């Protein structure tokens, strides 16, 4: 490669009217490395874009939280402490834990398994969501209540030779309080946005974080198993899938005396009676055959600011739940009810079941958002 530098000049001589031209040509031959360096050097626009991208990446990496063992231990300890405090609140004991205990005690004979599943909690660290934090702590309270009922029943029904309590955990989240003849408690949790922090906390809390999204289609494993579903503030489609999936398997056997597995499930979640009424809707047709216990952790009417006024929440909440206000409690448990099949209307439900129009299971679309 050669570069030519040309310089020229002209002179006018008046006497002879002649033009004189002088040319100067300088030829240089650059080195190979200077050419390569010039070819590889990016333009200014590309340099500016690259610098901007590096700056954004560095900012994202700087803001991304790192999961440490100290962070996990602190969250687990906080959840356990809050769960214990929730069990002492009046509305939690009367409106939720008492119906759960009665549900288990009336069906414990021949019981083989209790599956406690939680959907719709979302990220449950205190910094991410106070409602999610309280709901995860309440899941631990439900787990503790189920363990207490199973342990009490096992002690009363176990033979004298097997009267010694043995704590066995076949897998994380499964509790077998006696070697034989005792139902196992399986506690699981699913949320599509759960991350590494939530998985590590669930492992320490004895809760299995499921990897597969079943869109609420959970059923008891067999006729002697029970399902307790905790679905706080979840999409209505998940709740509908739960009820439908527990009617579909046994619908064709309704004439033979089967009412389906609906009698074996208890739901703590969105109150169906609070939905907007729709014509020919499956959920509307199901309401008359369900028994409801309203959770009364709601803000009192007439309070314009809606803060620090919650029914059935006494003054001990401030000392038992550090950093949690009454408004946080109201938001976490608002519009919630305990729902199960009304056994007094079981015969009517048995007759209406063949005529009930069951919708298909929803696995995508805006209803799941």
From TrEMBL:
Residues 115-338 form the SRR1-like domain. InterPro entries: SRR1-like (IPR012942), SRR1L (IPR040044). It holds the Pfam family SRR1. GO terms for cellular component: cytoplasm; nucleus. Belongs to the SRR1 family. This is SRR1-like domain-containing protein. It comes from Trypanosoma cruzi marinkellei. The lineage of its organism: Eukaryota, Discoba, Euglenozoa, Kinetoplastea, Metakinetoplastina.
